[in-house]
Amino acid sequence: MIWLNQIVQGVLLGGYYALIACGLSFMFGVMRVINLAHGSLAVLAAYVLWLLADRYEISPFLGLGLVLPAMAALGWVLQRAVLERSARGGLLVPILSTFGLAIVIDNLLFEQFGADTRSLAPYIDTLSYDSWTITDDIYVGELAALIFATAVVLLGGLQLFLSFTPLGRAIRATAEDPDTVGLVGIDARTVNAAATAIAMVTVGLAGGALAMRATFDPYAGAPQLIFAFEAAVIGGAGSLWGTLLGGIVLGVAQTIGAQISPQGFLIAGHAVFLAVLFARLWRGRIADWVRIRRGRIA
User: Fold this and answer.
1) What are phi and psi of 59, to 5 degrees?
2) Are 254 and 265 in contact (CB under 8 A)?
C-alpha cells in the first residue's frame, strides 16, 4: 500500500506540474516561444498574492480576482514590448530576452522582499494540511486535490476554447501560418498578444498554487521553470492534454524515486525526462533501422 500511496501522491503532484507547465506549453504551441521567464513570473504572482494577504488581509482566493487580470495585462504588454520586437531578430533572440527578463524579475523581488522564504499556507486556514483518509496508508490532501482539479479544468477549458471559439480558432490558425492569416482578416499581432495574456493567466494560477502548497523566495522561479519544462517535454510540447500526462509522469517518477531513496526525488524525475527526450530523438532512427532490417530479411 505504501507504493500505491506514492503513486497517488505522484498523480496529485503531477496536477501542480501540469498547472505550471500549461502556460509554457501554450505559448510554445501558439508562438513557438520558449519563455524562460515563466517560473519567475509565477513567483511574481505568488508575491503579489502574499502581499495582498499579508498587508491588506485579502484571502488568496479573492486575491486571484485581482492578480489574474493584472497578469493578463502584463502578458499583453510582454508580447507587444518584448516578444514581438525580439522575434524580428530570429528564433534565439526571444529566448535570450525572456532569460534577461527572468534575471530582472528575480533581482527586483530580492531587492524588495529579501531572501526570506514566504508562503500563503497561513492564510488559507487548514486547507494547506487537511486531507481525506482513503485507507490506513493512503491519504489525499485537499489542497493537492484542488490543484489537480484546477489543472484538469484549466486544460480542458483551454482545449474547448481553442476548438470552439472564434478567438481560439484564430489562435490555432495564427500558430499554423502567421503570415497568411492576414489574408482572411485576422490580426496576428492582436491574436498573439491575446494568447500571451491567456498564458499569463495560467501563470498567475500556477503562482497561487505554488504559494499555497509550498514556500517560495525570489529565486524560486528557476526550479519551477525546470519542472514545467520537463512536464511539457515529456507530454509533448504544445499538447495541452499531453502536458497533464507529462506532469503526472514526472510527479509519479519523483515520488517513487523519493520512496526508493531520500535523494531520489529529483534524480528520478530528471532520469525519466532524459529517457523520454532521448527516446523521441532516436525514435525516427530506430524506426528506419527496423524498416531496413525487415527489408533485408524479406
Assistant:
1) -55, 140
2) yes
